[in-house]
Specification:
This protein is an alpha/beta fold. Helices cover 40% and strands 17% of the residues.
Length: 206
């Protein structure tokens, strides 16, 4: 089972140091999401992270940075998918496959996943539990329904659970049969995000 981290959407104190510490602790993939940031700010944070970790970073915007910094992949946002033409999307997948770049996206219902025909490497399914980082953003799924779906699901693209995940409910994510979990609010609301990461990682036995 995988454990990914999604950056806080806003700038946080000592962010590059905290991200670097997570990588040193064994973080496999970091999703870099700063929807209001310019490409210059994106690059500023990237440059403050040791380049040895670039191949573990997926960006949610400013996709041109992929080749410049030899990043791992791109995460296609709902806004991006609304404007890209079908033919261009197919070409994007072909290019990504040729260049060994991962392509992922987010979905918010089982039906959406079931109807998907794109060859994503993985999909974020959210919000699984009440959001920690967003007030008034409640859970969108019934866990028994999720379990039943995942038993029948062919596991590709892989499904990553996102939304309200912390040390109190990570075992439910494991039991449901997800391919992994994505941490957001559980880490960045804490002063010691590294210790929280260690705690959850230990429960997952990874």
């Amino acid at each position: 089972m995988k454990l990914f981290v999604l950056t806080h959407p806003q700038e946080i104190e000592n962010e590059s140091e905290k991200i670097t510490d997570l990588f040193k602790e064994g973080l496999e993939i970091l999703h870099f999401r700063k929807p209001e940031w310019s490409i210059e700010k994106y690059e500023g944070l990237l440059k403050s992270i040791p380049s040895v970790y670039y191949k573990k970073i997926v960006v949610h915007s400013h996709y041109k940075l992929i080749e410049k910094y030899n990043l791992r992949g791109i995460h296609l946002t709902g806004k991006y998918l609304e404007v890209i033409e079908g033919k261009m999307l197919k070409e994007l997948f072909k290019t990504a496959d040729r260049k060994n770049i991962t392509v992922s996206t987010s979905m918010h219902s089982i039906q959406e996943v079931a109807e998907n025909t794109c060859k994503y490497d993985y999909i974020f399914l959210s919000p699984l539990f009440d959001s920690i980082s967003k007030e008034g953003y409640p859970a969108g799924f019934n866990m028994e329904e999720i379990k039943g779906f995942l038993i029948k699901y062919n596991s590709f693209p892989k499904l990553m659970a996102l939304g309200g995940i912390d040390e109190t409910n990570i075992e439910k994510v494991i039991e449901a049969g997800f391919s992994g979990a994505v941490l957001l609010g559980a880490l960045w609301k804490e002063k010691n995000s590294l210790e929280k990461f260690r705690q959850i990682k230990k429960i997952m036995n990874i």
